[in-house]
Design goal:
single chain, alpha/beta, seven-stranded mixed sheet, Transposase_HTH_dom, DDE Tnp4 domain-containing protein
Protein backbone atom coordinates (compact mmCIF):
# COMPACT_ATOMS: atom_id res chain seq x y z
CA UNK A 1 0.00 0.00 0.00
CA UNK A 2 2.83 2.39 0.82
CA UNK A 3 4.45 1.72 -2.55
CA UNK A 4 1.19 2.49 -4.42
CA UNK A 5 0.71 5.74 -2.50
CA UNK A 6 4.24 6.80 -3.46
CA UNK A 7 3.47 5.98 -7.10
CA UNK A 8 0.32 8.11 -6.99
CA UNK A 9 2.29 11.03 -5.52
CA UNK A 10 4.79 10.79 -8.34
CA UNK A 11 2.08 10.61 -10.99
CA UNK A 12 0.23 13.61 -9.49
CA UNK A 13 3.40 15.63 -9.49
CA UNK A 14 4.00 14.85 -13.16
CA UNK A 15 0.51 16.07 -13.96
CA UNK A 16 0.97 19.47 -12.21
CA UNK A 17 0.91 22.50 -14.53
CA UNK A 18 3.50 25.13 -13.76
CA UNK A 19 2.10 28.48 -12.53
CA UNK A 20 2.25 31.52 -14.71
CA UNK A 21 1.41 31.93 -18.33
CA UNK A 22 -0.73 29.56 -20.37
CA UNK A 23 0.83 26.50 -21.99
CA UNK A 24 2.66 27.18 -25.21
CA UNK A 25 2.45 24.73 -28.12
CA UNK A 26 6.03 23.49 -27.52
CA UNK A 27 5.31 22.65 -23.92
CA UNK A 28 2.09 20.94 -24.91
CA UNK A 29 3.96 18.86 -27.48
CA UNK A 30 6.55 17.93 -24.90
CA UNK A 31 3.85 16.95 -22.43
CA UNK A 32 2.13 14.75 -25.02
CA UNK A 33 5.44 13.04 -25.77
CA UNK A 34 5.99 12.49 -22.09
CA UNK A 35 2.50 10.97 -21.67
CA UNK A 36 3.14 8.68 -24.64
CA UNK A 37 6.44 7.54 -23.15
CA UNK A 38 4.71 7.00 -19.81
CA UNK A 39 2.09 4.83 -21.43
CA UNK A 40 4.81 2.85 -23.15
CA UNK A 41 7.36 2.62 -20.33
CA UNK A 42 5.96 4.08 -17.08
CA UNK A 43 8.80 2.79 -14.93
CA UNK A 44 11.49 4.79 -16.71
CA UNK A 45 9.41 8.04 -16.76
CA UNK A 46 8.57 7.77 -13.07
CA UNK A 47 12.20 7.25 -12.18
CA UNK A 48 13.27 10.27 -14.24
CA UNK A 49 10.52 12.45 -12.78
CA UNK A 50 11.47 11.39 -9.29
CA UNK A 51 15.02 12.64 -9.89
CA UNK A 52 13.72 15.99 -11.17
CA UNK A 53 11.38 16.40 -8.21
CA UNK A 54 14.18 15.66 -5.79
CA UNK A 55 16.39 18.33 -7.44
CA UNK A 56 13.65 20.95 -7.45
CA UNK A 57 12.27 20.44 -3.95
CA UNK A 58 15.53 19.42 -2.28
CA UNK A 59 14.07 16.28 -0.69
CA UNK A 60 16.84 13.72 -1.15
CA UNK A 61 15.58 10.99 1.26
CA UNK A 62 12.11 10.78 -0.21
CA UNK A 63 13.31 10.96 -3.81
CA UNK A 64 15.87 8.28 -3.13
CA UNK A 65 13.18 5.99 -1.77
CA UNK A 66 10.88 6.64 -4.74
CA UNK A 67 13.68 6.13 -7.23
CA UNK A 68 14.78 2.83 -5.67
CA UNK A 69 11.23 1.65 -5.48
CA UNK A 70 10.31 2.56 -9.05
CA UNK A 71 13.57 1.31 -10.55
CA UNK A 72 12.99 -2.08 -9.04
CA UNK A 73 9.47 -2.28 -10.45
CA UNK A 74 8.79 -4.29 -13.53
CA UNK A 75 6.30 -3.34 -16.16
CA UNK A 76 3.68 -5.61 -14.65
CA UNK A 77 4.26 -4.13 -11.20
CA UNK A 78 3.76 -0.62 -12.55
CA UNK A 79 0.38 -1.65 -13.86
CA UNK A 80 -0.64 -2.79 -10.39
CA UNK A 81 0.11 -6.54 -10.68
CA UNK A 82 2.39 -7.13 -7.68
CA UNK A 83 3.31 -10.81 -7.17
CA UNK A 84 2.53 -12.58 -3.92
CA UNK A 85 5.81 -14.25 -3.01
CA UNK A 86 4.51 -16.34 -0.02
CA UNK A 87 1.65 -17.75 -2.13
CA UNK A 88 4.10 -18.68 -4.90
CA UNK A 89 6.30 -20.53 -2.42
CA UNK A 90 3.26 -22.38 -1.04
CA UNK A 91 2.17 -23.44 -4.53
CA UNK A 92 5.66 -24.70 -5.31
CA UNK A 93 5.71 -26.74 -2.11
CA UNK A 94 2.26 -28.15 -2.87
CA UNK A 95 3.35 -29.17 -6.37
CA UNK A 96 6.35 -31.04 -4.96
CA UNK A 97 4.10 -32.86 -2.47
CA UNK A 98 1.67 -33.77 -5.25
CA UNK A 99 4.50 -35.14 -7.39
CA UNK A 100 5.76 -37.23 -4.50
CA UNK A 101 2.27 -38.55 -3.76
CA UNK A 102 1.70 -39.36 -7.42
CA UNK A 103 4.97 -41.26 -7.62
CA UNK A 104 4.12 -43.17 -4.45
CA UNK A 105 0.66 -44.07 -5.80
CA UNK A 106 2.17 -45.31 -9.08
CA UNK A 107 4.68 -47.41 -7.16
CA UNK A 108 1.96 -48.95 -4.98
CA UNK A 109 -0.24 -49.71 -8.00
CA UNK A 110 2.66 -51.42 -9.74
CA UNK A 111 3.46 -53.40 -6.60
CA UNK A 112 -0.21 -54.39 -6.29
CA UNK A 113 -0.27 -55.65 -9.88
CA UNK A 114 2.89 -57.69 -9.32
CA UNK A 115 1.51 -59.23 -6.12
CA UNK A 116 -1.77 -60.12 -7.82
CA UNK A 117 0.12 -61.77 -10.65
CA UNK A 118 2.28 -63.73 -8.19
CA UNK A 119 -0.78 -64.75 -6.16
CA UNK A 120 -2.58 -65.90 -9.30
CA UNK A 121 0.39 -68.11 -10.19
CA UNK A 122 0.26 -69.76 -6.77
CA UNK A 123 -3.51 -70.30 -6.76
CA UNK A 124 -4.42 -73.96 -7.19
CA UNK A 125 -6.37 -73.86 -10.43
CA UNK A 126 -5.90 -74.59 -14.12
CA UNK A 127 -3.22 -71.92 -14.53
CA UNK A 128 -1.19 -73.47 -11.72
CA UNK A 129 -0.72 -76.71 -13.68
CA UNK A 130 -0.95 -75.45 -17.26
CA UNK A 131 2.09 -76.17 -19.45
CA UNK A 132 3.93 -77.82 -16.56
CA UNK A 133 4.10 -81.59 -16.90
CA UNK A 134 6.24 -82.02 -13.80
CA UNK A 135 3.60 -80.36 -11.60
CA UNK A 136 0.83 -82.46 -13.15
CA UNK A 137 2.74 -85.69 -12.50
CA UNK A 138 3.61 -84.70 -8.95
CA UNK A 139 0.20 -83.44 -7.81
CA UNK A 140 -2.15 -85.73 -9.76
CA UNK A 141 -0.18 -88.77 -10.94
CA UNK A 142 -1.47 -88.26 -14.49
CA UNK A 143 1.02 -88.17 -17.38
CA UNK A 144 0.30 -84.67 -18.70
CA UNK A 145 -2.01 -81.65 -18.52
CA UNK A 146 -3.98 -82.71 -21.59
CA UNK A 147 -5.05 -85.94 -19.87
CA UNK A 148 -6.05 -83.98 -16.76
CA UNK A 149 -8.21 -81.59 -18.80
CA UNK A 150 -9.83 -84.51 -20.65
CA UNK A 151 -10.65 -86.14 -17.33
CA UNK A 152 -12.06 -82.87 -16.00
CA UNK A 153 -14.30 -82.34 -19.02
CA UNK A 154 -15.59 -85.89 -18.64
CA UNK A 155 -16.78 -85.32 -15.06
CA UNK A 156 -17.36 -81.56 -14.96
CA UNK A 157 -21.10 -81.56 -15.57
CA UNK A 158 -21.70 -84.22 -12.92
CA UNK A 159 -19.81 -82.52 -10.10
CA UNK A 160 -22.07 -80.79 -7.56
CA UNK A 161 -21.94 -77.03 -7.22
CA UNK A 162 -19.85 -75.62 -4.43
CA UNK A 163 -19.72 -71.98 -3.34
CA UNK A 164 -16.15 -72.19 -2.09
CA UNK A 165 -14.53 -74.47 -4.69
CA UNK A 166 -14.64 -74.59 -8.46
CA UNK A 167 -15.26 -77.95 -10.19
CA UNK A 168 -11.61 -78.10 -11.24
CA UNK A 169 -10.46 -77.49 -7.66
CA UNK A 170 -12.73 -80.30 -6.45
CA UNK A 171 -11.10 -82.69 -8.91
CA UNK A 172 -7.62 -81.40 -8.09
CA UNK A 173 -7.94 -81.73 -4.32
CA UNK A 174 -9.25 -85.30 -4.75
CA UNK A 175 -6.31 -86.29 -6.94
CA UNK A 176 -3.88 -84.54 -4.60
CA UNK A 177 -5.18 -86.46 -1.61
CA UNK A 178 -4.97 -89.77 -3.46
CA UNK A 179 -1.56 -88.99 -4.91
CA UNK A 180 0.21 -87.42 -1.91
CA UNK A 181 -1.97 -88.60 1.01
CA UNK A 182 -2.13 -85.04 2.34
CA UNK A 183 -3.99 -84.54 5.63
CA UNK A 184 -7.43 -82.99 5.41
CA UNK A 185 -6.35 -80.03 7.52
CA UNK A 186 -3.43 -79.29 5.22
CA UNK A 187 -5.71 -79.34 2.18
CA UNK A 188 -8.09 -77.02 4.01
CA UNK A 189 -5.29 -74.46 4.36
CA UNK A 190 -4.25 -74.85 0.72
CA UNK A 191 -7.76 -74.33 -0.65
CA UNK A 192 -8.91 -71.96 2.11
CA UNK A 193 -12.03 -73.94 3.03
CA UNK A 194 -13.40 -75.60 6.14
CA UNK A 195 -12.89 -79.24 7.08
CA UNK A 196 -16.53 -80.04 6.40
CA UNK A 197 -16.52 -78.42 2.96
CA UNK A 198 -13.39 -80.24 1.86
CA UNK A 199 -14.53 -83.65 3.15
CA UNK A 200 -17.86 -83.26 1.41
CA UNK A 201 -16.16 -82.21 -1.84
CA UNK A 202 -13.78 -85.19 -1.67
CA UNK A 203 -16.58 -87.73 -1.13
CA UNK A 204 -18.77 -86.25 -3.86
CA UNK A 205 -15.90 -86.19 -6.35
CA UNK A 206 -14.94 -89.79 -5.57
CA UNK A 207 -18.55 -90.82 -6.25
CA UNK A 208 -18.58 -89.08 -9.62
CA UNK A 209 -15.16 -90.42 -10.62
CA UNK A 210 -16.21 -93.96 -9.70
CA UNK A 211 -19.36 -93.64 -11.79
CA UNK A 212 -17.71 -92.08 -14.82
CA UNK A 213 -14.36 -93.87 -14.84
CA UNK A 214 -15.34 -97.23 -13.38
CA UNK A 215 -16.03 -98.73 -16.84
CA UNK A 216 -12.37 -98.10 -17.76
CA UNK A 217 -11.57 -101.17 -15.67
CA UNK A 218 -13.14 -103.61 -18.10
CA UNK A 219 -12.55 -107.13 -19.34
CA UNK A 220 -11.40 -106.95 -22.98
CA UNK A 221 -12.79 -109.12 -25.74
CA UNK A 222 -10.75 -112.22 -26.57
CA UNK A 223 -10.15 -111.23 -30.22
CA UNK A 224 -8.90 -107.77 -29.28
CA UNK A 225 -6.62 -109.15 -26.61
CA UNK A 226 -5.13 -111.87 -28.80
CA UNK A 227 -4.46 -109.36 -31.58
CA UNK A 228 -2.01 -107.43 -29.38
CA UNK A 229 -0.62 -110.27 -27.27
CA UNK A 230 3.03 -109.61 -26.25
CA UNK A 231 5.59 -111.91 -27.81
CA UNK A 232 6.94 -113.29 -24.52
CA UNK A 233 3.48 -114.65 -23.67
CA UNK A 234 3.11 -116.13 -27.14
CA UNK A 235 6.42 -117.95 -26.80
CA UNK A 236 5.36 -119.60 -23.54
CA UNK A 237 1.56 -120.06 -23.63
CA UNK A 238 0.58 -119.00 -27.11
CA UNK A 239 -2.33 -116.55 -27.23
CA UNK A 240 -4.32 -118.26 -24.50
CA UNK A 241 -3.42 -116.08 -21.48
CA UNK A 242 -6.52 -114.13 -20.46
CA UNK A 243 -5.56 -112.64 -17.10
CA UNK A 244 -2.88 -112.53 -14.42
CA UNK A 245 -4.30 -112.37 -10.90
CA UNK A 246 -3.04 -111.62 -7.42
CA UNK A 247 -4.35 -110.26 -4.10
CA UNK A 248 -3.11 -107.22 -2.20
CA UNK A 249 -4.07 -105.72 1.13
CA UNK A 250 -4.62 -102.23 2.53
CA UNK A 251 -4.22 -101.49 6.23
CA UNK A 252 -7.26 -100.25 8.12
CA UNK A 253 -7.92 -99.01 11.64
CA UNK A 254 -8.69 -101.57 14.28
CA UNK A 255 -12.48 -102.03 14.37
CA UNK A 256 -14.26 -101.71 17.71
CA UNK A 257 -16.63 -104.57 16.84
CA UNK A 258 -15.17 -107.93 17.87
CA UNK A 259 -16.54 -109.82 14.86
CA UNK A 260 -15.23 -107.24 12.41
CA UNK A 261 -11.91 -107.27 14.24
CA UNK A 262 -11.63 -111.04 13.75
CA UNK A 263 -12.64 -110.89 10.09
CA UNK A 264 -10.18 -108.16 9.17
CA UNK A 265 -7.09 -109.43 10.96
CA UNK A 266 -4.46 -110.67 8.51
CA UNK A 267 -1.91 -113.19 9.77
CA UNK A 268 0.23 -112.49 6.70
CA UNK A 269 0.46 -108.73 7.42
CA UNK A 270 0.09 -108.99 11.18
CA UNK A 271 -2.51 -106.22 11.30
CA UNK A 272 -6.08 -105.43 10.28
CA UNK A 273 -6.48 -105.14 6.52
CA UNK A 274 -8.90 -105.11 3.62
CA UNK A 275 -8.08 -107.59 0.87
CA UNK A 276 -8.72 -107.18 -2.87
CA UNK A 277 -8.34 -109.41 -5.90
CA UNK A 278 -6.81 -107.64 -8.88
CA UNK A 279 -6.31 -108.92 -12.41
CA UNK A 280 -4.33 -107.48 -15.31
CA UNK A 281 -4.13 -108.29 -19.00
CA UNK A 282 -0.89 -109.44 -20.63
CA UNK A 283 -0.55 -105.86 -21.91
CA UNK A 284 -0.40 -104.55 -18.31
CA UNK A 285 -3.79 -102.80 -17.99
CA UNK A 286 -6.02 -103.53 -15.00
CA UNK A 287 -9.04 -105.52 -16.18
CA UNK A 288 -10.59 -106.69 -12.90
CA UNK A 289 -10.87 -105.47 -9.31
CA UNK A 290 -13.00 -107.16 -6.68
CA UNK A 291 -14.90 -105.85 -3.70
CA UNK A 292 -13.05 -105.56 -0.42
CA UNK A 293 -12.83 -108.52 1.91
CA UNK A 294 -11.48 -108.90 5.41
CA UNK A 295 -7.79 -109.75 5.65
CA UNK A 296 -8.70 -113.15 7.06
CA UNK A 297 -10.27 -114.32 3.77
CA UNK A 298 -8.18 -116.66 1.64
CA UNK A 299 -7.20 -116.02 -1.97
CA UNK A 300 -9.24 -118.99 -3.11
CA UNK A 301 -12.38 -117.83 -1.32
CA UNK A 302 -12.15 -114.31 -2.76
CA UNK A 303 -11.61 -115.68 -6.29
CA UNK A 304 -14.63 -117.95 -6.07
CA UNK A 305 -16.91 -115.21 -4.70
CA UNK A 306 -15.68 -112.23 -6.72
CA UNK A 307 -17.26 -113.19 -10.05
CA UNK A 308 -13.94 -113.57 -11.86
CA UNK A 309 -14.64 -117.18 -12.90
CA UNK A 310 -17.82 -116.12 -14.68
CA UNK A 311 -15.78 -114.05 -17.15
CA UNK A 312 -13.46 -116.83 -18.26
CA UNK A 313 -13.98 -118.61 -21.57
CA UNK A 314 -13.08 -122.20 -22.50
CA UNK A 315 -9.42 -122.44 -23.39
CA UNK A 316 -8.32 -119.42 -21.34
CA UNK A 317 -5.19 -119.56 -19.22
CA UNK A 318 -5.00 -117.83 -15.83
CA UNK A 319 -1.60 -117.07 -14.27
CA UNK A 320 -1.60 -116.99 -10.46
CA UNK A 321 0.48 -117.56 -7.34
CA UNK A 322 0.59 -120.73 -5.24
CA UNK A 323 -2.17 -119.51 -2.94
CA UNK A 324 -4.76 -119.70 -5.72
CA UNK A 325 -5.69 -123.36 -5.50
CA UNK A 326 -8.57 -123.04 -7.97
CA UNK A 327 -7.79 -125.71 -10.55
CA UNK A 328 -11.06 -127.52 -10.01
CA UNK A 329 -13.17 -124.36 -10.25
CA UNK A 330 -11.38 -123.17 -13.38
CA UNK A 331 -11.51 -126.68 -14.87
CA UNK A 332 -15.31 -126.59 -14.66
CA UNK A 333 -15.20 -123.86 -17.32
CA UNK A 334 -12.72 -125.80 -19.46
CA UNK A 335 -10.07 -123.19 -18.64
CA UNK A 336 -6.68 -123.68 -17.06
CA UNK A 337 -4.79 -122.04 -14.20
CA UNK A 338 -1.00 -121.95 -14.18
CA UNK A 339 0.68 -121.66 -10.76
CA UNK A 340 4.27 -122.40 -9.65
CA UNK A 341 4.92 -126.00 -8.62
CA UNK A 342 4.72 -126.97 -4.96
CA UNK A 343 7.84 -128.33 -3.30
CA UNK A 344 6.03 -129.87 -0.32
CA UNK A 345 7.10 -133.49 0.14
CA UNK A 346 9.71 -133.23 -2.62
CA UNK A 347 13.41 -132.92 -2.12
CA UNK A 348 13.91 -131.36 -5.52
CA UNK A 349 11.81 -130.48 -8.58
CA UNK A 350 12.47 -132.17 -11.87
CA UNK A 351 13.86 -130.21 -14.83
CA UNK A 352 10.48 -129.72 -16.53
CA UNK A 353 8.84 -128.45 -13.32
CA UNK A 354 11.71 -126.00 -12.80
CA UNK A 355 11.39 -124.62 -16.34
CA UNK A 356 7.59 -124.29 -16.04
CA UNK A 357 7.87 -122.57 -12.66
CA UNK A 358 10.51 -120.21 -13.95
CA UNK A 359 8.39 -119.28 -17.01
CA UNK A 360 5.28 -118.70 -14.89
CA UNK A 361 7.14 -116.58 -12.34
CA UNK A 362 8.78 -114.57 -15.10
CA UNK A 363 5.37 -113.61 -16.56
CA UNK A 364 3.35 -113.45 -13.36
CA UNK A 365 5.70 -110.80 -11.93
CA UNK A 366 3.95 -108.17 -14.09
CA UNK A 367 0.91 -108.07 -11.79
CA UNK A 368 3.15 -107.39 -8.80
CA UNK A 369 4.83 -104.58 -10.72
CA UNK A 370 1.44 -103.01 -11.47
CA UNK A 371 0.43 -103.24 -7.80
CA UNK A 372 3.74 -101.75 -6.70
CA UNK A 373 3.47 -98.93 -9.24
CA UNK A 374 -0.08 -98.20 -8.11
CA UNK A 375 0.95 -98.08 -4.45
CA UNK A 376 3.97 -95.88 -5.10
CA UNK A 377 2.09 -93.45 -7.31
CA UNK A 378 -0.90 -93.04 -4.98
CA UNK A 379 0.40 -92.76 -1.43
CA UNK A 380 -3.05 -93.08 0.09
CA UNK A 381 -2.82 -96.86 -0.44
CA UNK A 382 0.16 -96.89 1.93
CA UNK A 383 -1.70 -95.22 4.78
CA UNK A 384 -4.16 -96.70 7.26
CA UNK A 385 -7.71 -96.30 6.00
CA UNK A 386 -10.14 -94.99 8.66
CA UNK A 387 -13.01 -97.29 9.56
CA UNK A 388 -15.52 -94.56 8.68
CA UNK A 389 -14.50 -94.92 5.02
CA UNK A 390 -15.54 -98.57 5.13
CA UNK A 391 -19.15 -97.79 6.00
CA UNK A 392 -21.54 -98.51 3.08
CA UNK A 393 -22.88 -95.39 1.38
CA UNK A 394 -25.50 -94.81 -1.27
CA UNK A 395 -23.92 -95.89 -4.54
CA UNK A 396 -23.93 -93.06 -7.06
CA UNK A 397 -22.94 -95.61 -9.71
CA UNK A 398 -26.55 -96.72 -9.78
CA UNK A 399 -27.83 -93.23 -10.53
CA UNK A 400 -29.74 -93.59 -13.78
CA UNK A 401 -29.13 -89.95 -14.80
CA UNK A 402 -25.38 -90.47 -14.82
CA UNK A 403 -25.44 -93.70 -16.77
CA UNK A 404 -27.98 -92.25 -19.21
CA UNK A 405 -25.53 -89.46 -20.07
CA UNK A 406 -22.55 -91.80 -20.18
CA UNK A 407 -21.30 -93.46 -23.33
CA UNK A 408 -20.57 -96.58 -21.28
CA UNK A 409 -23.27 -99.10 -20.52
CA UNK A 410 -24.38 -99.67 -16.96
CA UNK A 411 -22.50 -102.50 -15.21
CA UNK A 412 -24.30 -105.80 -15.12
CA UNK A 413 -22.78 -106.72 -11.75
CA UNK A 414 -24.69 -105.14 -8.87
CA UNK A 415 -22.32 -104.54 -6.00
CA UNK A 416 -24.22 -105.15 -2.81
CA UNK A 417 -21.96 -102.95 -0.69
CA UNK A 418 -20.27 -100.09 -2.50
CA UNK A 419 -17.69 -98.87 -0.01
CA UNK A 420 -15.73 -95.65 -0.07
CA UNK A 421 -12.44 -97.52 0.02
CA UNK A 422 -13.50 -99.66 -2.95
CA UNK A 423 -14.42 -96.51 -4.91
CA UNK A 424 -11.01 -95.07 -4.11
CA UNK A 425 -9.35 -98.26 -5.32
CA UNK A 426 -11.35 -98.28 -8.56
CA UNK A 427 -10.38 -94.65 -9.15
CA UNK A 428 -6.71 -95.48 -8.61
CA UNK A 429 -6.96 -98.42 -11.01
CA UNK A 430 -8.55 -96.19 -13.66
CA UNK A 431 -5.80 -93.61 -13.23
CA UNK A 432 -3.22 -96.36 -13.57
CA UNK A 433 -4.83 -97.51 -16.84
CA UNK A 434 -4.85 -93.96 -18.16
CA UNK A 435 -1.15 -93.59 -17.36
CA UNK A 436 -0.16 -96.68 -19.35
Amino acid sequence: MKRREEEKVCINKTQEIPAGNAEIPAERREREQTEAKFAHNPGEILAQHAVEVSNENSEPPQAKVVMETVSNMSEDEAEGEIPNEPATNTQTTECKVCDQNRKEIDRLLQENRELKSELKKRELNEEFLKDNTEKVKYYTGLPCFAVLISLFRNVQVFLPTNNKLTPFQMLLLTLMRLRLDLPIQHLCHLFNVTHKTLSSAFNDTIDVLHARLGPLVHWPERDCQQAIMPQQFINTFGKRVAIIIDCFEIRIERPSNLKARAQTYSHYKGTHTMKYLIGITPQGSISFISNGWGGRASDKHITEKSGLLNRLLPGDVVLADRGFDIKEDVGMICAEVKIPCFTKGLRQLDAKAIEDTRAIAHLRIHVERVIGCMRNKYKMLHTTIPVRLLIPREAITHDESIWRCSKFRKPTVDYEATLIDQKILVMVCCAANVSI
